[in-house]
Design goal:
Number of helices: 3
Largest sheet: 6 strands, antiparallel
Shape: globular
Strand content: 15-25%
Helix content: under 10%
Number of strands: 11
Distance between the termini: 17 Å
Order of helices and strands: HEHHEEEEEEEEEE
């Protein structure tokens, strides 16, 4: 088992301790089983109901992602944002265990105990570090991902948030603030759009040895991540699974989301839709590398 798996399971164990301070983070309760772990299903067309073949009903994936979606708060000095940004895509995937069903199978022999929700925010431009920095580091394109982990219980009808993975840090549920008792509060740094669970990094700690300081004052505009769009198949901003993400059901082409020549599963570095201008894109990761 990987070290990260062990840390995640340990954090889950801690969140089960009945301490009053750990009451925040309200569970999601579904009226149906989200998993295909039995011989029967109420979906007449299973290939459409679980179009990415990950043993989770696609409608349940969206309900889980929507229920725990982040509440973003900008820095008051944000300077690299179009009015409709960020565009947020998501993937809900079995984390432990990673399960798939074969073509033609109507059920899975097991059910995942932990789900990983990957929310990825897209921007045309990374605006660089704040005015207090001696460096810039701006570049075309910006794709920032966070990972939320939820525990599946009650036969696939109840989901409990465990924690979040931001950058290189794993944050247990009890270290996270919530809006409406279920949406994690995350702060964007100005320009760079890095995520933080607090504003402690505002001009206090260099991001790199070069003195690249973040600006994270938490006094800018707040907004919920938007996970639906008229441009998305079935209106869900779901990217599906690596092996199964047919464009009929999942987001692939990002042109109608404001990023021409980009793909949700593209293997080239994300360029924010500026690839056709001949600009060199070097400061981001590929979209393909974000998803599991």
């Amino acid at each position: 088992m990987r070290r990260f798996d062990i840390a995640l399971i340990a954090i889950f164990s801690l969140t089960m301790i009945p301490v009053q301070a750990r009451a925040q983070g309200k569970d999601l309760k579904l009226p149906y089983n989200a998993f295909l772990d039995g011989p029967d299903t109420d979906a007449a067309d299973l290939d459409a109901a679980d179009a990415d073949y990950d043993c989770i009903l696609d409608r349940a994936e969206h309900e889980v992602a929507e229920y725990f979606k982040p509440y973003f708060i900008f820095d008051s000095r944000e300077r690299a944002r179009r009015t409709f940004e960020p565009v947020t895509l998501y993937q809900v995937t079995p984390y432990h265990k990673k399960l798939f069903r074969s073509l033609g199978e109507r059920s899975c022999s097991e059910r995942a105990r932990i789900l990983e929700i990957i929310y990825t925010s897209l921007w045309r431009q990374d605006g660089g570090f704040g005015s207090s920095s001696v460096c810039d580091s701006s570049h075309p394109g910006d794709n920032q991902a966070i990972r939320i982990y939820v525990w599946a219980a009650a036969g696939g009808k109840r989901f409990k948030i465990v924690g979040a993975h931001l950058g290189k840090a794993l944050w247990p549920k009890d270290t996270i603030r919530f809006v409406a008792d279920r949406h994690p509060v995350l702060y964007y740094s100005s320009g760079k759009h890095h995520h933080y669970v607090r504003t402690y990094a505002d001009r206090t700690k260099p991001h790199a040895p070069l003195g690249c300081y973040e600006e994270v004052d938490g006094r800018g505009a707040p907004l919920f991540a938007t996970l639906t769009s008229d441009a998305a198949p079935r209106r869900f901003n779901n990217v599906g699974e690596r092996a199964h993400h047919p464009a009929r059901y999942f987001i692939n082409d990002l042109t109608h989301f404001g990023f021409p020549d980009e793909d949700a599963w593209g293997r080239a570095r994300f360029c924010g839709g500026l690839r056709g201008t001949g600009i060199e894109c070097h400061g981001t990761s590929s979209m393909d590398s974000i998803w599991r």
